[in-house]
Specification:
CATH superfamily of the domain at 169-511: DD-peptidase/beta-lactamase superfamily
Strand order of the largest sheet: 6-5-15-14-13-12
Radius of gyration: 30 Å
Largest sheet: 6 strands, antiparallel
Helix content: 10-25%
Distance between the termini: 43 Å
Structural class: alpha+beta
Number of helices: 12
CATH topology of the domain at 169-511: Beta-lactamase
């Protein structure tokens, strides 16, 4: 194979780039109470027949008139009012609206008929439950039986901090060692030969080869995405008064922030440079290609430059020198005590231990939640871990590699059918006009949004993240992500309560995204 040049969907990599990176190949509206015309008509007949009037304030707040028959069966009992669902406000993950039970007191005579309680209306992020209609006990007639119908489930709202607090991590302290039972991991089944560590449920479950430290090479790119996400979080509430002010958004132009566009399209967005396609002369859908920014000097480090400009607005003030910011707001906040970054570029330069790499992985697999607080927005993690522009590369998000089902470009584009692929739930999606996931093998459907994503560096430096299993695998000088998962998976499947050692069945379900037992908080696709 001629390795002098490599084309990546139209982008050409130099022999230098290939040489450096080639070993990586290895508020809902409630239903209103409708006027009970038939009930009132029945009550009116009772009045005409018997001349007796009574009220029941418990029927939907409406005074109901019931006829009282002198002879059993002559009077008509009131129909039960419909229960009304209580509408819950937006944003709750699982708040329930409960339909109020309709109540009626029947007159002597025929049993009151019970209407079904109406299902509770579902507000955004809520689900409604219909109230049960109470049967009227009539004298001389059968009891009316009412049954409330269930309300329609609402659309899940944005998860709250309380939801994310269910996840566990070490914070800035030492790692807690997990037992086999706690980790659901039969570690004796992990294949040897790799210098790796396995973290599950935020605990260090297994480490082999020692907590080695080394140069992580291009895994630094994902660390750069974390730096950008942290900076964006610190200025998210700053009002926008013009270009280069306010929040740091993916759809901002690089030039809006006063950062040079040398080497890239003058109209390139932050999302383009983080996806390594901002260099294209035409950024329209279907016209972009992917070209790996190996050392980071062409475009990806511009996200750091933008972040430092944006941070000038931060209150309380934050460092605006990238090295100090990385130390104080990434390494110190995540407890990465053995990590350093050379600075200048996010293409490479991060030296760190397996345990430090794992802290980055745990924070990302928990959607930006770490140490009992929000470290970065879940929406930023989502865009890192999902395809940015399918026309250029389905296997790359924003500074992270993705498991995919074809359409990927360059050496990190592995397809692992025993792990879920990264798809958006709907197409087109924010930032891309793609009509579908652009898969070339299998479809785009998935029950759970739990695609596997990774940081990858020259010579086998990896952080592999499995959101659906709350699992992170980190490695130095190891095999590629698919091989790492093959080495660890038997330990997972052996203690999986559903599949109990059946690897084929596990792969079938997990690979299709229909099995995600440890996804405690649904991942919500951003819309802007």
């Amino acid at each position: 194979m001629d390795m002098s040049m490599q084309s990546t969907s139209g982008g050409v990599r130099s022999s230098r780039e290939v040489e450096v990176e080639v070993t990586q190949v290895g508020s809902g509206t409630s239903r209103s109470n409708r006027p009970l015309l038939s009930v009132l008509a029945m009550a009116a007949l009772g009045l005409l027949a018997c001349g007796d009037e009574s009220t029941d304030p418990n029927v939907d707040g409406i005074n109901m008139v019931a006829g009282a028959g002198a002879t059993p069966g002559a009077g008509a009992g009131p129909a039960q009012g419909a229960g009304t669902g209580v509408t819950s406000g937006t944003g709750g993950l699982s708040t329930s609206g409960n339909g109020a039970a309709g109540r009626a007191t029947p007159s002597a005579g025929a049993g009151g008929s019970s209407a079904a309680g109406a299902g509770g209306a579902s507000g955004a992020g809520t689900s409604g439950t219909g109230g049960a209609g109470a049967g009227g006990a009539g004298v001389g007639g059968p009891a009316g039986a009412g049954t409330g119908s269930a309300g329609t489930g609402g659309t899940p709202g944005a998860p709250s901090d309380a939801d994310y607090a269910k996840y566990h991590d070490p914070g800035t302290g030492v790692w807690e060692m997990g037992t086999a039972a706690e980790c659901k991991l039969e570690t004796s089944r992990i294949a040897g030969g790799n210098n790796l560590a396995v973290i599950r449920y935020g605990k260090l479950c297994h480490i082999q080869g020692g907590n080695t430290s080394g140069q992580n090479f291009s895994a630094t790119k994902t660390l750069g995405g974390v730096l950008g996400g942290r900076a964006a979080y610190l200025v998210k509430d700053v009002p926008r008064t013009g270009p280069g002010t306010g929040p740091m958004l993916h759809e901002d132009k690089v030039s809006d922030w006063g950062v040079s566009t040398s080497g890239i399209n003058a109209n390139a967005l932050l999302s383009h440079v983080m996806a390594m396609n901002g260099y294209n002369s035409n950024l329209d859908y279907g016209r972009k290609s992917f070209s790996y920014d190996t050392v980071g000097t062409r475009e990806i480090t511009k996200i750091v430059d933008v972040a430092m400009v944006a941070l000038k607005q931060a209150m309380p003030p934050a460092p605006t020198e990238s090295g100090i910011f990385m130390q104080q707001h990434v390494f110190d906040k995540l407890g990465m005590k053995a990590s350093t970054w050379a600075g200048g570029t996010i293409g490479t330069g991060w030296v760190g231990t397996l345990e430090d790499m794992a802290r980055v992985g745990v924070m990302l697999v928990h959607d930006g939640w770490y140490g009992g607080e929000r470290f970065m927005e879940a929406s930023w993690v989502y865009r890192m871990s999902h395809p940015s522009h399918e026309d250029a590369n389905t296997a790359y998000g924003q500074l992270a590699w993705l498991n995919n089902r074809g359409g990927g470009s360059s050496f990190g584009a592995e397809i692992d059918t025993c792990a879920p692929a990264a798809f958006w739930p709907d197409y087109p999606h924010v930032g891309s006009e793609a009509p579908d996931c652009s898969a070339t093998t299998g479809g785009c459907e998935q029950e759970h949004d739990v695609g596997v994503f990774s940081a990858q560096g020259l010579g086998g430096q990896f952080i592999v993240m499995h959101p659906g299993l709350d699992l992170v695998i980190v490695a130095h000088n190891a095999d590629a992500p698919r091989a790492l998962w093959a080495a660890v998976r038997p330990a997972v499947v052996a203690m999986d309560p559903m599949f109990m050692g059946d690897d084929a069945a596990f792969c079938e379900a997990y690979g299709k995204g229909s099995y995600a037992p440890d996804l405690l908080v649904p991942r919500i696709a951003p819309t802007k």
